[in-house]
Amino acid sequence: MVTEFESASAIDTYDLGCELGKKALPGEVYTLNGDLGAGKTVFAQGFAKGLGITDNVNSPTFTILQIYDKGRLTLYHFDVYRIADSSEMDEIGFDEYVYSDGVCLIEWAEYIEDILPEGYIRVDIKKDPEKGFDIRHITIDRPESKVND
Description:
By secondary structure, the chain is α/β, with parallel strands linked by helices. It is built from 3 helices and 7 strands.
């Protein structure tokens, strides 16, 4: 099931992430795709808030993974921008996180698409400069088996 949103600000993007975080289920994997500065980390911050996480959430670009375990579910926040090959994910125990009772958010997931689990939820965030600097087009592609509305 594909759902589309138009975000007019970082607050809108944050709020959408927050709403999805409130509905997130154990074991779900969300991929966040979009250019630099599109709003992936802002979305992730809102998602964490929706899970009840109050820690400061930043993109884990240099550490690849940040774990936030003080919410309704543990959040495993990946940024795989610097991954040269998906086999590098074995070194950090990727499968242990993806097949856990927590929830995963994976920024730049297109770099490891070959190892993503079936049924992941794809979130695409695209800038829309023709409409304005802050406008984002957000598409959420959720497999039918994962619909929890």
